[in-house]
Design a protein that fits this description.
The complex is a heterodimer of chains A (371) and B (367).
Chain A: H1 7-13, H2 16-47, H3 49-52, E1 58-62, H4 79-84, E2 89-103, E3 109-117, E4 128-131, E5 138-142, H5 143-149, E6 156-159, E7 162-170, E8 179-184, H6 185-192, E9 198-203, H7 209-219, E10 223-227, H8 228-272, H9 274-282, H10 287-323, H11 333-359
Chain B: H1 6-12, H2 15-45, H3 48-53, E1 57-60, E2 74-75, H4 78-83, E3 88-103, E4 106-115, E5 126-129, E6 137-141, H5 142-147, E7 155-158, E8 161-169, E9 178-183, H6 184-191, E10 196-197, E11 199-204, H7 207-216, E12 220-223, H8 224-268, H9 270-278, H10 283-319, H11 329-346, H12 348-355
Parallel strand pairs in B: 4-9, 6-8
Antiparallel strand pairs in B: 1-11, 1-12, 2-10, 3-4, 3-11, 5-8, 6-9, 7-8
Helix pairs in contact in B: 1-10, 2-8, 2-10, 2-11, 8-10, 8-11, 8-12, 10-11, 10-12
The chains are: A alpha+beta (371), B alpha+beta (367).
Chain lengths: 371, 367
């Protein structure tokens, strides 16, 4: 029984330390792309958190305003009554939404979305982990922001220039950019002026989100009406579109470094074994077989590097999230697939020069003595 | 006795490998330089509006960190109050906010400025067209207009209102957000916020005295330095961690490329190094050989980095002019220190290999 000798693997890993350096080198270059992709994916998750966890089926906003992040929406007050009268609507909850600053008595300040809602009704914090919903003169802060500002339950916090008392702590509302603070709708009206920014709308049983969206859009022609999923998608698109150029630049640099390392590895591994390739050719191996060895080396290098970069990225994500809780790094399958596809492409490019060398190798070189 | 230039000979033995290695190290160092340059660019752009508003003081909601990220609300009636204060040369209301434009199915975040026609606060330099005068007119940053193929007379939706582009402003591009200018009244209509403004720009030759007088009547005024400091702190909070992470990854990548090249050279030439050891080279000499190799690679990589950086910067600024890459002396120094540190760290693996090399390797066939 004849068994194929795994030449590609042996040549590549014959020198273990070099193989480790090469794999980690490529992995670190890919890590650049993977981590940045993870930072933006994490930011997307954070930015869409409020909407994703909302019980609303449909969200109504000012005409032409389709997002909350970096947006300002103002609805006419009669929109609430008009929406409530629409067939298929189970409930309508107006919320106020303002971007501003929260501050601690010690001087620490943080950028925050301030959401005004009616306690006991939808629109408040999804995960209230301590204390209670806000009452008059009170606010619910996100735990991470409270930690950073050194605030606890019962402490004073300045929200949009007005001092309130911390009544509760919520989870999941702080991102790399800002945090989320909840006050009563009446409190926000008092601090910021009458504010109806968005309507959260629940559908009656048996009414689909899209059907309710269409009915509401007809009843409210001067507003933007979207299902929760559509709204979350629009929110994510803000982060994706803003980050696209930075991501592209970093991806080009990351892949270029990876290209240099893979080229270096394959070229060196091929040159070092040129005599062996000559022997194999002298024994009757076709050019295709030799090319297969080089391609297999490229596949091994890329596969190991991608796997290592994912492992490294997961470790980096854990470490960063522990050290800087506002930064979420989400290593998502789609990001890994993009990096793997990019790595495969540069692996193919890297293999070209060694391929030319092995195909052109002279079988007689096997019988020459190397100096 | 003359030293044999082993380092140079070994490095130059395979020019193609040397070029690829230099490119790898160069790219890593270029990444560090580029991130540093981008960060310097962000710092230079963080107060673009304040730098050109002509105001010495800004009347805002207490605690305001940034004119655009905060929803500062000031009663419009306060403008006349401010104008009546001694030593105030002029005062103008301005609405400032971030908003999202939908252009060609892309979300484009912009800094929206609403000013009163004929008063300070509007676009400070125009490439073409004029400042907005009516509520359905808008001036768009020229870089943003170029990217999205906007021309004078085009219609775009701003906060739900359809507006006609009447001008293109200059020097108003930002790292993530360009500027868009409309009339103050247009923002009142869009935000359903009559009788309010975001900020009152104040022109005065006596900022300290005017600020004290404003505070005495319950109005909060901040100066340029305070706004710059808080805007920088905000930018650092947002971009700091990702920037540091990217620099760290670039540093690790550069170190590994140098280590890989040096180690490969040592591994391939173990016979020559064995001879060096057999004829009496001390461990210090061998470590110096490894270090010399990595330092030489770092130096060649630094030259490549400089060329790559200049080329990369030219390409980025041509294709994406909103990204300003500023070269600073501290930035270059940091990259040089990073290159040196890479070389020292990368020397560890080949130096260990040389230290453990058996001198008898010199007498074995290298095949």
């Amino acid at each position: 029984m004849s068994r194929r000798v795994p030449l590609a693997r042996r040549y590549l890993f014959g020198e273990r330390r070099r193989a480790v350096l090469a794999t980690v080198g490529v992995a670190v270059a890919l890590l650049l792309v993977l981590v940045l992709d993870g930072i933006f994916a994490g930011a997307m998750r954070q930015v869409t958190s409020y909407i994703r966890t909302s019980p609303a089926d449909v969200i109504v906003s000012q005409r032409g305003v389709r997002t909350m992040h970096m947006s300002t929406s103002a609805l006419p007050t009669d929109t609430v009554d008009t929406a409530r009268a629409v067939d298929g609507v189970a409930w309508v909850e107006p919320i106020g939404f303002v971007s501003g600053v929260i501050g601690a008595p010690t001087g620490g300040r943080q950028l925050s979305y301030v959401i005004g809602f009616t306690p006991g009704r939808p629109g408040g914090p999804h995960d209230l982990i301590a204390g209670r919903a806000p009452g008059t003169g009170e606010a619910v802060l996100d735990r991470v922001a409270a930690d950073q500002l050194g605030l606890h339950l019962g402490d004073r916090v300045r929200v949009l220039g007005t001092w309130l008392t911390v009544s509760g702590l919520a989870e999941g509302g702080t991102s790399i950019v800002n945090t989320t603070t909840f006050v009563t709708a009446a409190e926000l009206d008092r601090i910021h002026g009458p504010t109806t920014s968005y309507l959260l709308v629940g559908a009656r049983p048996g009414t689909s989100s899209s059907a309710l969206r269409d009915t509401l859009a007809r009843a409210l022609p001067d507003a933007s009406v979207q299902t929760r999923t559509e709204f979350a998608r629009q929110e994510a698109a803000v982060v994706a579109d803003m980050s696209a150029d930075v991501m592209r630049i970093m991806a080009i640099i990351g892949f270029a470094i990876a290209l240099a390392v893979i080229s270096l590895t394959l070229f060196t591994a091929t040159l070092a074994r040129l005599r062996d390739f000559g022997i194999i050719k002298a024994l009757g191996a076709s050019s295709g077989r030799l090319a297969g060895i080089v391609i297999a080396q490229a596949v091994w290098t890329v596969a190991l590097a991608v796997a290592s970069s994912v492992a490294l990225a997961l470790v980096v994500a854990r470490v960063v999230e522990a050290a800087v809780p506002t930064v979420a790094i989400a290593i998502e399958p789609s990001g890994v697939m993009r990096v793997a596809a990019g790595a495969a492409a540069i692996g193919a490019v890297s293999a070209l020069a060694p391929l030319r060398r092995v195909i052109a190798v002279d079988p007689a070189s096997a019988f020459r003595r190397l100096s | 006795m003359r030293h044999v230039p082993l380092v140079r000979r070994n490095l130059l033995a395979d020019p193609r490998r040397l070029v690829v290695s230099a490119l790898g190290v160069g790219l890593a160092l270029m990444l560090i330089l580029l991130l540093d340059g981008l960060w310097a660019g962000i710092r230079s752009q963080v107060t673009t509006y304040e730098d050109h508003s002509g105001a010495q003081l800004y009347v805002v909601t207490p605690g305001t960190l940034n004119l655009f990220a905060d929803s500062s609300i000031v009663p419009r009636s306060a403008v006349d109050t401010v104008r009546a204060i001694p030593d105030v040369r002029w005062a103008a209301p301005v609405r400032t906010a971030y908003t999202i434009l939908d252009l060609h199915n892309r979300k484009v975040a912009v800094a929206l400025v609403g000013s009163v026609p004929g008063e300070p606060g509007g676009p400070w330099a125009l490439a073409e067209g004029r400042a907005p005068e009516a509520d359905d007119e808008v001036v768009v940053d020229s870089v943003l207009a170029d990217r999205h193929d906007l021309h004078l007379g085009d219609a775009i939706a701003v906060s739900g209102a359809t507006m006609r582009v009447v001008g293109m402003s200059l020097g108003t591009a930002g790292f993530m957000t360009g500027f868009v200018f409309v009339t103050h009244h247009a923002t009142e209509l869009a935000l359903r916020a009559p009788d309010t403004t975001s900020v009152i720009l104040v022109g005065t030759d006596q900022p300290a005295a005017v600020r004290a007088r404003l505070a005495a009547i319950g109005l909060t005024a901040v100066d340029h330095a305070a706004l710059r400091a808080s805007s920088l702190a905000l930018a650092t909070k947002i971009y700091g961690t990702p920037m540091r992470l990217m620099v760290g990854v670039g540093f690790a990548a550069g170190t590994l490329v140098i280590a890989l090249t040096s180690y490969t050279t040592v591994a391939e030439r173990r016979r020559e190094y064995g001879i060096v050891k057999a004829i009496g080279a001390t461990p210090t000499r061998l470590t110096a050989l490894a270090l010399g190799q990595t330092l030489s690679l770092a130096l060649i990589g630094a030259v490549a980095a400089a060329a790559l950086f200049l080329g990369g910067r030219a390409v980025i600024e041509a294709l994406r002019p909103q990204f300003v890459v500023v070269v600073t002396a501290p930035g270059v120094l940091r990259a040089a220190v990073a290159g040196l540190a890479m070389a020292v760290l990368a020397a560890i693996v080949p130096a260990r290999r040389l230290a453990h090399l058996d001198p008898a390797a010199a007498f074995r066939d290298s095949s």
